[in-house]
Structures are given as C-alpha cells and as structure tokens.
C-alpha cells in the first residue's frame, strides 16, 4: 500500500533489466489487483498531506505545465492527470495497469478534460507513447519509500519518454531513521510467548487425544512465529515524543538521475545521540520525504515538501516503519550509537524488503554495552 500505481518493476525482470524473472500473472494477482478497488483509492485520496503536497506542487508551479506534455505513471483514479490538465498542460498521458483506468476515464470525462487527458491501460514497460514528454508525475512511494519497488517503472518511463530538458514530480526523495521508544516491544514479545505456549498445549492435546506426536514441527513453527512477531517491521503512527535520538538521512535520491541499481541495495553507516534522560531504546523508526524542486535548469517557483515524519500533524497513510528490538535497552541523554544499515529486496518477493541493523553503543556513563545485530523483514 502506498500509491495508485501501474507496474512496480516486476516486469523489468522479464527483459533482464530488473532483479530477476517475475511472472506477470502472479505479480498482478499479488500486487496490482489491490489498486483496482475504489476503497483503496479513497484511502489515498483522503490523505490530506499527500493530496495537498501534489496539488500545491502543480498549482504553484504552473510554468512546468502550461502548454506542456505530461506523463502520469500509475494514474489510479486520474487525479494527478486532471490537476496537470487544469494547470494548463497541452496533453496528459495517464497510464494505469489495472481496471481502475475505466474509473479514471469516467472521472476525466466528468471534469470535461477528455480532449487533454488520455487514459492508457497497460504496464509502463509495454506502453508506447506518440511523443516525448516535458513532465513525468507519479505517486510511486511505498512504505519506507522503497517497499513495492514502484520506482523502477518511473525510472523506465523517464529513460524512455522524458525529454532531455524534462522535470520529475517529485524531483527528490530521502529516507530517514531515528532511535525510538515504544510500548509495542513488550506487546510483540507477549504475543510471541503466548503463541508458543498455545503451540505446546496443542502438541500435548494432539498427542493425548489423537495419538500423534507433532513435536517434530516445533522448530519450523518457532521460526515462523519469530519472523512474524519478532523480526518483521511494523506500520505505526509514531508520536514525536517517541523519537528519542537524532534522526539521520540514510538515502538521498535525485529522481532525474537515480537508477534501479542505486536502490537494489541501500548500505550506509550513521551516528545518533540520545536526547532524552533515562529512557528505553526500543528500536528504530523510519520514514521518508519527497520534494518538488524541478531541476537546476528549470527550478520550481515554489518548492513543496511531502513528509511522512512523526512530527507531521495527523500523519499520513504511509505512517512510519518501526524496527523493534526483542528487549528494550536502558539509555540516557548523551549516549551515542554507531549504526550500520543494509537494506535489499527480499529474495522470494522483489516488492518486499529485508533490512539489517548493527549497533554499537558508547554510553556517557562509560558502562560497557554489548553491541547487537538484527535482521528485519519489511512486508
């Protein structure tokens, strides 16, 4: 969940440009079909932070749209295409992989823009346009920015159809991480312990009632539940006071020049200082922001930022990704941490992500603290 989107990069694998061979039918069933429902579009269209950022970026930078050609990658309901036309675009190509394209056509016609906006049903990798475009606009961002691998198709569209002088909407993106405190760490551990207690009761009951010993399955069941409860990141709307340390940018992207290879693996190291006295470090919170700046040769008149940070009032439908430790660590103001971070696409599903944190502490008290390393699944 995260955008009204056309192909999110899976089909790139079919021609060797992406992360391996992907079955189009399976990819559609697992992913695209979600975006063909109006209830899902409504959730995104009701996100005022999202909507205001895109609306303002277009309406306050009409010089990028007046008399220009626009490509909306993953048009969904068609709202960005409609705004582009209302801002003065000469022609808008609105590409959508799902049957949501039918609703988009109705909406375009109802707003009297069918002579400007052309809705095209198909994947971005397969679509052929009659001309190059001046602007590519897309709401491609997934959870923690890169989940769903949707930016791949924007890159494909850019490389095939954007004029050398063209602009990207949004133009830049960043991913952030910061140490947090959260009561969810105890809740997740309690759920795991309760599930394992239930399992052992199930083993005893099956043996006593039906004469079958199922204990051989305890190890794989344990691994399965550990992954679900203790190793999978969570969607959450963090409150600003839950961020207990300095936030760091772990990835910056220029949408005009970024490549698929740039985002297949994110590897970095950052430092953070605890800002709160006598607190519990529960893990890390992650979020993103995107910016509408135009390009150096054709800058935006008004730069607009779309942020999903915990400080944003009322939040967004993206929320934040929360990476929880198995047990909290007691820390205090002035403590420092050196964090290594690696994130790559999951081996069994290119739309999901895997992340690994390594953390070393330097406590202001001088007390030694064991470093840790933990892997997470972003699903």
From TrEMBL:
Catalytic activity, per the record? L-arginyl-[protein] + 2 S-adenosyl-L-methionine = N(omega),N(omega)-dimethyl-L-arginyl-[protein] + 2 S-adenosyl-L-homocysteine + 2 H(+)
Its keywords, alphabetically, are: Methyltransferase, S-adenosyl-L-methionine, Transferase
GO process annotations (BP): methylation; vegetative to reproductive phase transition of meristem
Molecular-function GO terms, alphabetical: histone H4R3 methyltransferase activity; protein-arginine omega-N asymmetric methyltransferase activity; protein-arginine omega-N monomethyltransferase activity
List the EC numbers from the record: 2.1.1.319
Q: Which CDD domains match?
A: AdoMet_MTases
Q: What class of enzyme is it?
A: transferase
Domain Protein arginine N-methyltransferase stretches: 191-357
Q: Cellular component per GO?
A: nucleus
Report the domain of life of the source organism. Eukaryota
Q: Does the keyword Transferase apply?
A: yes
Q: How does it assemble?
A: Ring-like homodimer.
Q: What is this protein called?
A: Protein arginine N-methyltransferase PRMT10
What is the name of the gene encoding this protein? LOC110729129
